[in-house]
Amino acid sequence: MTRKPEPGSRGRRRVATVGFVALGAIALSSGVALAEPTEEEAQQRYEELQEELSALNETFNQAEEDHSTAQTELEDIEERLAEAQEDLDAMSGQVAGIAQVAYTESTHSLFTVLFDSSADAALQNVADLNFLSEGQEVVLADYVVEVERAEELRDQAATSEEGAAESLAEAESAQEEGEAALEEQAAVLESLGGVDPTAGTAADGGATTGGDAGAVSGDVQAVLDFARAQIGKPYVWGGTGPDGYDCSGLTQAAWAQAGVSLPRTTYDQVNAGTSIPRDEVQPGDLLFFYSESAPSHVGIYSGNGMMIHGSNPAKPLEEVSLSAYWDGVFTGAVRVG
């Protein structure tokens, strides 16, 4: 089981969101003049929303993964259930014949013998029908086992179907919350004059601490070439390409160019290699943010204090300076390959 964000965290963040965007509405409706958020407060709120969006996207991804797993499990169970039903159908003729014998030669009700107790008791009851031949006893015993197996498979299918529905609902909820957060972030960005506090370029003086020296290997170069070729494509909720990606979808697709199969979510990608300190990162390393145990954002270190990543659906995939914002929320790095 993969790690997930702390329970209840999404609800608390949504309360903060509603409170922030409602400020202007309260002032207008009440006629009370409230102070506009300062630039520092607006910047802080924008950054909070960036973290929230990252968490919501990974919640969406995990729910999608859980839904896919449940659907695959359901399909497997339904296939086995169909096989069990075929076996029951094939045995039904023999069982019907034995039932006729039971009706004419015994005071027992065959239905009661087989189904009015547990499977073990039913098998014992079959053995007690001393007028049956050894072959008939085997047929009935096999039939009881097959009925029990079919019932278990039906229960498993129902559980799997319920789990798939719950996961799908969670994914839809996360995306709805994300859309609301995006709307607020757009309003906050406007109050900042369109200057995104989480964006940065090489001109910002990206931190160069790290093992940047020397040529990268062919595999890493393939990863970087692919990632750079995606810059400008849209960030898509749950996107795994080729037309759009989210943060972990981009890293997964990029490292696939080097023959490395990364897990789907940031929660799992953080465990997909060797952990390294910030001052030893090299091009191609995965950088994680916001939480050390369950990071909700990931990017690819591209050298010279820069990172290629997908931030949120309001912006295309981009290459940014770590020093402008991201080093402040950096929580770990992993070397894969």
Written description of the protein model:
By secondary structure, the protein is an alpha+beta fold. The protein has eight helices and six strands, in the order H-H-H-H-H-H-H-H-E-E-E-E-E-E. It has helices at residues 9-30, 39-105, 110-115, 119-128, 134-191, 218-230, 247-256, 266-269; strands at 274-276, 286-289, 297-303, 306-309, 318-321, 330-335. Strands 1-6-2-3-4-5 form a six-stranded antiparallel sheet. Helix 1 runs parallel beside helix 5 (134-191), helix 2 (39-105) runs antiparallel to helix 5 and helix 6 (218-230) crosses helix 7 (247-256). The longest helix is centred in the first third of the chain and has 67 residues, at 39-105. The two termini are 23 Å apart. The model is unreliable at 1-31 and 103-108 (pLDDT under 50).
Instruction: Name the helicity range.
Output: 55-70%
SSE order: HHHHHHHHEEEEEE
Mean pLDDT: 76
Q: List segments where confidence is low: pLDDT < 50 over at least 5 consecutive residues.
A: 1-31, 103-108
Oligomer: single chain
The helix count comes to 8
**Major β-sheet strand ordering:** 1-6-2-3-4-5
How many beta strands in the DSSP annotation? 6
Rounded to the nearest angstrom, the distance between the terminal CA atoms is 23 Å
Structural class: alpha+beta
What is the general shape? elongated
Strand content: 5-15%
Estimated radius of gyration: 30 Å
Q: Give a short account of the largest sheet.
A: 6 strands, antiparallel
Keywords for this structure?
alpha+beta, 6-stranded antiparallel β-sheet, 56% helix, single chain, disordered N terminus, 337 residues
